[in-house]
């Protein structure tokens, strides 16, 4: 067995802080849309806006860190081992003795499917959430930017759709955490920073 430090303290802080903020944003988003009542509408909306600003600030800081550290390269899509990874997740994962074809290292942290998923999350879902959320927050200022003829329902619908896309991403992400062998392998790596290779 080998042990490599794969995720730095900052990466783990960013990951878990982002996860907590996103989960709370999803919860308050559902409440603001009337799915249930826990905080009450006004408090839920206030918390939703507050956590949105925290997530935006964290994201700006993370983008800066990724560019300064060079870690942005981890998200460049690749087809290297794509077929093997697809085969693993569709067929081989159900075989007792199957081995994941991708080995996580400090220099290459994400398999080809992860790179595509994380790129879509960071380059599509998050920006749509930010832009639509900021427009939603500053609805009263729309005439100042020439948007007085844009229906609020359109922006609200886009924001809600992006919120559901984020929820789907979160569900799949949590599911994929538990596809490691042994079961807690990936979760342990994101908690401790170390990847234990059992292959």
Automatic annotation (TrEMBL):
InterPro entries: Cyt_b561_bac/Ni-Hgenase, Di-haem_cyt_TM, Hydrogenase_cytochrome
Membrane-spanning ranges: 12-30, 50-68, 116-139, 151-178
Localisation: Cell membrane
Coarse class of the protein's main subcellular location: membrane
Gene3D superfamilies: Transmembrane di-heme cytochromes, Chain C (1.20.950.20)
Topological type in the membrane: Multi-pass membrane protein
SUPFAM superfamilies, per the entry: Transmembrane di-heme cytochromes
Record has Cell membrane as a keyword: yes
GO molecular function per UniProt: electron transfer activity; heme binding
Single Gene Ontology BP annotation: respiratory electron transport chain
Segments forming domain Cytochrome b561 bacterial/Ni-hydrogenase: 6-193
Keywords: Cell membrane, Membrane, Transmembrane, Transmembrane helix
CC per GO annotation: plasma membrane
PANTHER family xref list: CYTOCHROME YDHU-RELATED, NI/FE-HYDROGENASE 1 B-TYPE CYTOCHROME SUBUNIT
Protein name (Swiss-Prot/TrEMBL): Thiosulfate reductase cytochrome b subunit
Lineage: Bacteria, Pseudomonadati, Pseudomonadota, Alphaproteobacteria, Rhodospirillales
């Amino acid at each position: 067995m080998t042990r490599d430090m794969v995720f730095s303290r900052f990466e783990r802080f960013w990951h878990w802080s982002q996860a907590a903020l996103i989960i709370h944003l999803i919860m308050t988003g559902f409440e603001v849309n009337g799915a249930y009542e826990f905080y009450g509408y006004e408090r839920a909306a206030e918390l939703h806006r507050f956590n949105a600003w925290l997530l935006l600030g964290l994201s700006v800081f993370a983008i800066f860190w990724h560019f300064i550290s060079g870690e942005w390269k981890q998200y460049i899509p690749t087809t290297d081992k794509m077929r093997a990874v697809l085969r693993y997740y569709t067929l081989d994962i159900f075989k007792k003795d199957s081995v994941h074809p991708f080995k996580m290292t400090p220099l290459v942290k994400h398999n080809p499917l992860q790179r595509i998923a994380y790129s879509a999350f960071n380059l599509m879902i998050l920006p749509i959430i930010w832009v639509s959320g900021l427009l939603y927050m500053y609805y009263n200022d729309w005439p100042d930017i020439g948007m007085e003829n844009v229906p609020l329902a359109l922006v609200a619908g886009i924001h809600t759709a992006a919120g559901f896309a984020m929820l789907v991403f979160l569900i799949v992400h949590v599911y994929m955490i538990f596809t490691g062998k042994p079961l807690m392998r990936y979760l342990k790596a994101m908690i401790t920073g170390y990847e234990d290779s059992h292959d």
